[in-house]
Structure formats: structure tokens, C-alpha cells
Amino acid sequence: LTMSWFRLYLPLHVLMAACLCHSIKAPTSSSQQRFNTGLFNFYHSLILADGKETTVHLLKDIPKRYYFVLEEGRGLEPFTVTVTPCDVPIEWSLLVHKASASFLGKGTGGDHETQEVSKSQKASSIVSTIFNYKGNSVETYMGMSSHYALYMLEFLSTERDTHITVYLTTDTTSGHLYPELPMDPRIDVVGIGHTTVTLTWKHSPSVLQHRESIQYCLLVNEKHNYKSLCAAETAIRSSGMKLPPTLALSLSPYLLEPQQVMILSNSELSIINKASSGEVRQICMGTKNTYTVPNLSPDTQYYFDVFVVNLLTNASAAYTGTFARTLEEPEPKVMELKDGKVIQVVLDGKKHKFYSLQYQARHRKIQFSFQLCRGQVRVHITKNGKTVASENISGLRYFSLKGKLLDRYLVQLRPTEDFNSSVKVQVSPHFHKPLFPLLPESLKIKSFSKLRTCNSVTIAWLGTQEESKYCVYKRRIEEDQVWRELQSADMCSGPESRHRSEKVLCKYFYDLNLQRAVTTETIKGLDAGTLYLFDVYLFGPSGIPVRYHSKVVKTRKKC
């Protein structure tokens, strides 16, 4: 053992032995009983290190104890204990067992004096609880150490298994592990827009003294404020995302998880963690104490937390969190539809609001055409205030309506799911010039398993009685991309969105007998054991393409 550890270790065990002897005889209070229970378990417990942050894992309803004895000095010495809950509220207490020098056997007066010491042991040994706390805030106890005193920290979680961090220090001269907060640690909201919120906060004294090693990090989410960065990281992990420790605090390169997006611009590091419960953004902006948060959703409440971070130790201190609701978007103006013009409408799934289009008829017979690009959409059409059609659409849908000249039609579109949807809309009096090509009975692509080889696959799709152009595209994908690709496919996007190298071929065909209106193609030159995504586009007289449902096929690994 080093001399410094020896000086700590020896008084601790002398004091422990004395406390054990005394605890058998003395009447006990609740604090005394808890302390004595801890003493008997001392050798199965841990000594808390001075000047080092310790992570403590707690099991539900099982108390955990840590001990420490402060080195002797010439007088009372200050010390602090900081406890940071990383999840649920906890209970913690600080107890002290004080003993005099004579209690430790330091008297040298012979048998008579020893008997006197034995009689006075009860008076010279006191156990007391000097601090206790229950909650999930970061809490610091500041006190003065006593000679010949043994301290015990007891922690308890009654809700569930959790973890906390504990920091003990007696060094008040060489700086702090945790950055300092200003006298007023509040975050002020100084500006609110439809998609932005501007925040400002007072500088930390640590930033003014150690600008190179201190920075601010901002956490943005839609659920609630966090009282520590430790609690925020725990919540992000529990939502189903793997968050590397202190990821938001380090500017060094890190391999992000698929659910994370990193944005580095203007010396700011922004990490967006995407989960089913919403986004959690972490933005580190150096030592700037004013920041405008961009790309927020309108009419949404957000919670903002600022942490001042020591880059050398990754320790942080939390400002008092705040919240703000972005401004509601003004009601969109009703868009006027024009004969033959195609428009594409994107619908926000979070709002579930109607998007309105209006049209004044210049003919007695008109036709509305809808092509669903993504998601699910409900269409509601009224004529002069009376409902004439209302249904959920999929794929292509036509509504042929009759009326009078100058009848007013109102088309309302609404998403039926929580994510964004989009749809193309056209109104036209020309029934003989349809917007979309004649469609087959099914837009599915079929593959033939028995015809697969290590470097080729054979696919087939249905055609129509009308001669049309069909173009085939392929793209190599990975296993973990299949579900996302199939779910996010934009059925309205044409070949112009594809890379030229993905094009396989284009061909014309038709058959007056629908039973024979089917074509096959064998695509060669593929890699063995590899997944490919195949798409077929159908072009009609108008030139607007219709995309078949994507098909994923894997070539054989061995042939």
C-alpha cells in the first residue's frame, strides 16, 4: 500500500473495530441500527474514492452502502458529496460515526484510566444522520470533516433497478470536477416561431475561466425536461436506441447507430436520435450562450435542457430546463384546381388536418384522378356543399361526376396515419385523354424461385390490351434495408429519380387477350448470394409513369 492509502486505511480499520465493539453494547436509535447493520457488512461493501466520480448500480429495494474516512488534518476540513440520479427518484442518506481519541484507545494512563475509558465509551461515540434526500435531482452536501469520524452513504431505489453517480471531494483549491452554474441558472426563451425557438442563458463561470475545455450542449425533446445529462442518456437508451456514453459531448468521429443522424455545420455538432416516441436532439455549440433551434414542427411543445460540460472529464452540470410551444401554422389557403393540371400534395401525419382544393366546373361532366404516392389518404368531395364521394384511396382512383356549369367542388384530403402521406391530384373534363395509362389487374412483380441462379433472376409482370412502354430498374440492397425500402417507396416517383446505372432495359408490349398479357425478363450479370430490389415503370400516352410494387429477390449463394 502507498503511504497515502496506508494513512487512510489504518485509521479506517481501527475505527471500524472500535465501532463494532461499541455497537454490541450501546442502545441503538434508528440511525445507530442502520449504521451497525452496515458495519457488520463492511467487508462486503465498498470504500468511496476521494476525487473520483463513482457509478453505483442499485437493485430495487436493496440498499447499498459506501464508506469513507477523511485524512487527519490540523483542523476541520471541508468536503462535498454530489449524487446524480440517472433515472428514477432514489433515497440517500449520509450518516457519521464520531469517536474521541480515547475511544480509539489512544489514552496511555494504565488500568485505572482504561476502566474510565470503558465507562465513557457511550458518551464518546455518537451515530447521527447528517443529511438525507429523496428525489431525482442532482443534490450536493457540503460539510466539515471531523477527526476520528467514519462516514456512511446509503442509497435505495424503491421503483426499479437503476444507477447513479457519486462524487466525493476534499480538494476545494484546484478546481471542480463539475462545471459551475451561474447564480441564475435559468434558460430564457427570447423568440418563438412556427419552426424555431431562440434560447439564451447566462454564462457559466467555468466557461469564462477555462474556455478551451468547457462547452454547452443543448437537449431538445417533446416529452419532459431532464435534470442531468446522465438521466437524459438513460431515457434515450430505454426508448430502444443504443446511445454511446457522452456521444453528444465528444467532437471526435464516432460510428453512429442507424437510428442516429449526425450533422456538423458552423462548428456545431448536432445528433438526432430517432425513436417511435419522437426525436431527441443533442446540439453542442461551443461556448455560445444564445442558440436558435431550427427545424421544429409547428404547434408542438418542446422541452429544452442546457448542460455545461467539462470536455476533459465529461462531467456536466444542468441549467434549469424550460419549455415552449411553437406557433401554430396559419390555416392553408384553399388551392384552386385547373383543368388538366397535376398537383402533388404532401400531408402532415401529426396534424391530421384537411388539405383543401376547390374547382369550379366549366363542363357538365368532369373526372377527378388521384394517385397515392405514399401512406394512406382519405378523400372527401363535395359539390355545392353536398357530399358526392368519400373514401380511403389506394393506388389509382377515378371519380367521374355529373353536374351543371359553374358547380363548385371542394376536395378535402386527410392522412389516416401518423406519418406523412402524399398524393397526386388532377381534374379534367376530357374522359378520352386519361392522365394515367390503362392499368393491369395487378401491379405486383413475380419472381420464379426455380429459375434463380447465382448470377441471374427471372421476373414477370402483367400488361394490358394497350401498347405501352415498360422499363425495368434494379438496385443492390442490404438485409437491414429491405423493410425500410418497401415501406418508404414513393409510388409517384418516376425513373428520373433513379441513377442511370440502375436501368436494366425498356420494352413495349401488349396483348388483346388479357389472359396472355404477361411478360417475363431474365436479368443477368448479378452477384451470387446478393439481394436486389427490382422496379417496373409503366408509361402511357400522357407520359406519366405508374410504378409497380417493388420486388426483392436474392440470387443463389451456391450453384
Regions with little confidence, pLDDT below 50 for 5+ residues: 1-15, 17-28, 38-44, 102-123, 242-267
Radius of gyration based on Cα positions: 36 Å
Number of domains as seen in the coordinates: 4
Q: Within the CATH hierarchy, at the fold level, what is the topology of the largest domain?
A: Immunoglobulin-like
Could you report the average pLDDT, rounded to the nearest whole number? 79
CATH architectural category of the largest domain: Sandwich
Structural class: mainly beta
**Overall number of strands:** 36
- The helix content, as a percent range, equals 10-25%
Task: Please characterize this protein's 3D structure.
- This protein has four domains: 43-99 and 125-169, Jelly Rolls, CATH 2.60.120; 177-243 and 276-330, Immunoglobulin-like (Sandwich); 334-429, Sandwich (Jelly Rolls), CATH 2.60.120.680; 445-554, Sandwich (Immunoglobulin-like), CATH 2.60.40.
- The protein has seven helices and 36 strands.
- Strands 12, 13, 14, 15, 17, 18 and 19 form a seven-stranded antiparallel β-sheet that branches.
- The longest helix has 23 residues, at 3-25.
- It is elongated, with a radius of gyration of 36 Å.
- The chain starts with a helix and ends in a 5-residue tail after the last strand.
- It is found in: Secreted.
- InterPro entries: FN3_dom (IPR003961), FN3_sf (IPR036116), Ig-like_fold (IPR013783), NDNF (IPR019326), NDNF_C (IPR045805), NDNF_Fn(III)_1 (IPR055271), NDNF_N (IPR056225).
- Its main location: secreted.
